[in-house]
Amino acid sequence: MNAVEINGLTYCYPGACRPTLKDVSLRIEKGDFLAVVGNNGCGKSTLCKVINGLIPHFITGDFQGSVRVKGLDTLSSDVGTLAKKVGYVYQDFENQIVRPTVLDDASYSCLNYAFPDYRERGRAALEQCGLKDREEEYVWQLSGGQTHLLALAGAVSLSPDVLILDEPIAQLDPMHADRIYAVLRELNEVHGKTIIVIEHHTEYIADFCRHVLLMKDGRVQWMLPTREALQRVDELEDCNIFPPQVTQAAHRLRKLGRLPENAPLPTIVEEGKTAFSGLRYTPRKTPRPAAPTAAESAVSFRDVRLSYRSVKGEPRTVFDGLNLDIRQGEKVALIGSNGAGKSTLMKLMVGLLRPQSGTVSLFGESIGAKKAEDLARYISLVYQNPEEMFIKDSIRADIAYAMQVRGIRDWQQRTDALLERFRLTAIRDRDGRLMSGGQMRRASLAIGVALEPSVLLLDEPTANLDIATRREIIGVLEEMKEIIGTAVIATHDMQLVCQWAQRIIVLSGGRVVADGTRDEIFSRSDLKELVGIRPPEIFSMARALDAEALCYTIDEFTECFQEEKEWKN
Fold first, then answer.
1. Which of 368, 343, 339 is nearest to 356 (CA)?
2. Residue 567 pLDDT > 60
3. Which of left, alpha, beta for 364 (phi over 0: left; psi -120 to 50: alpha)?
4. How far, in Å, CA of 463 to CA of 342, rounded?
């Protein structure tokens, strides 16, 4: 029996000039693990909201065709009935957390259905999702990854046959991302759940999913076994879906004539060991520019201690005796697992938080007595959620605001120049909260640099973006290198770290556990165990072929790995 059957589905949102889904017919087998991929606006999330009945029961519109889940017609079944068949974890999963303690939240949906064993169902779901020992904790004591697992447990507690997750690892470090997918694999293989994920991280698709569904312009282009799907590199890239780096590298090497034309492309590192076995590593001919040295300090921390008050238990200590210097002119990446203290460190720098003891200094002067607004001319923070930076009804007004209130004479000309630099001129009158993810990121960066701060801080600048938009933001950051003196980025995006940062600071438990260049950081295997960080897949591929190899991008890999005859020449 199929888990999901869709026939001739066409759907148009109210007021839209054209349908979002167009004549979709689809069969998803019971027990499948399916990845739904496609570029922004192709209809992925809309399709999934049709499967769980939100469309058309809560989100109206023009609905044609039929959708059946485990034999139930979604049109004739109410959302409450469908929720016991289809569990849904949204991209903004924090909005699904409604109760103060972990067990209360996991069992809440079962309580609403008046199940007499609602607490037992909640406990079972927590155990399935790896949160068995967290039952009595408050939800705000959980890390980001644990909170995501709690949202999943709330859906699992109703024992649905189908589980849908929209971008399940978008905001997570690699360690928590691995844990999420390990739980999904167990739910699929041990408990027989049909899993559907909307996912851009194709390396996880290669490792965990059985089939891939490609959507384009509201239609199903194809649904194929994962290995076969990821071979279609050109077609996927045309839709801004980028196969695993191992696959992309093999595809490029095949075009260069270094791999056989008819051999299948590898999709994981283990397959790459065989596919690339005939290549030899030679170091890059153009070494990376060295980071500036011996510069004066831009931001310094001396014996800084900070703790948060807690409703339950002792206050949570984030930093205890932190000592750190960020020098002028550096491009620094802060990395570490969720909850390591990255965002807190940035809030200390801009005066949004004050330490219980110790000193935070900006260009040699303590900021302890200064107001946050007085520091804004020298240091600026771009938030992880860009919509938090929009306070006006247009992007132009948001960019101009800080300059206007400080009486900068040429604020109008500077505003227009920023709109042009960040490719926002055509949408300057649009409300920032109504723009696409990439547009919102570019706009928040423009707001951050409007006062031309000496130090720019960016908190997860590529979070929640598809791969194509992430590449665009990385390109913008590259362009900004010339106009930003000192920049610090907190991120889980290791590709961004490797392409952009000159210095990497690794935080764990509020301590600096490593500090150095990308070669120094990613060469240390102990950091993966301690912090859960992971270099880009292409780096792991290169190291699997040669223990001395240091390749962080596909360009570097294809430059450094050559056929035996090329190497000898």
1. 368
2. no
3. left
4. 14
Q: Is the peptide bond before 289 cis (omega within 30 degrees of 0)?
A: no
Q: What residues contact residue 243 under an 8 Å CB cut-off, 6+ apart?
A: 202, 206, 230, 233, 236, 237, 251, 265, 267
Classify residue 478 as left (phi > 0), alpha (psi -120 to 50) or beta.
alpha
569 forms beta bridges with: none
- Residue 66: beta bridge partners? 7
Q: What's the residue count for the chain?
A: 569
Q: Which residues of 395-418 are buried (b: 16+ CB within 10 A; e: fewer)?
A: bbbbbbbbbeeeebeebeebbeeb
pLDDT digits (tens, 9 = 90+) for 183-220: 999 999 999 999 999 998 999 999 999 999 999 999 99
Structure tokens at 124: 């079972």
**Structure letter (DSSP) for residue 373:** H
Question: Which two structure tokens, joined as six digits, stand for 47?
Answer: 């399709």
CA 102 – CA 99 distance, rounded (Å): 8
Say if residues 25 and 201 touch (Cβ distance below 8 Å): no
Residue 511, classed as helix, strand or coil, is strand
User: 98 in helix, strand or coil?
Assistant: coil
DSSP sequence for 24-72? EEEEEETT-EEEEE--TTSSHHHHHHHHTTHHHHTS-SEEEEEEEETTE
Instruction: Please indicate whether residue 295 or residue 166 has the higher confidence score (pLDDT).
Output: 166
Cβ pair 432, 443 in contact under 8 A: yes
| Contacts with 195 (C-beta within 8 Å, 6 or more apart), sequence order | 32, 33, 34, 162, 163, 165, 184, 187, 188
Q: What pLDDT score does 569 carry? A: 43
Q: Does position 294 have pLDDT exceeding 60, yes or no? A: no
Best CA proximity match to 195, nearest among 31, 4, 25, 1:
31
167 — pLDDT class (breaks 50, 70, 90)? confident
Which amino acid appears at position 319 of this protein?
A: F
Kindly compute the dihedral angle of the four CA atoms of residues 461, 466, 467, 469, in this order, to the nearest 10 degrees.
-60
Q: What is the DSSP letter of 101?
A: B
CB 318 within 8 A of CB 344: yes
Rounded Cα–Cα distance for residues 527 and 235 (Å): 37
d(CA 280, CA 270): 17
> With contact defined as beta carbons under 8 Å apart, do 383 and 389 qualify?
yes
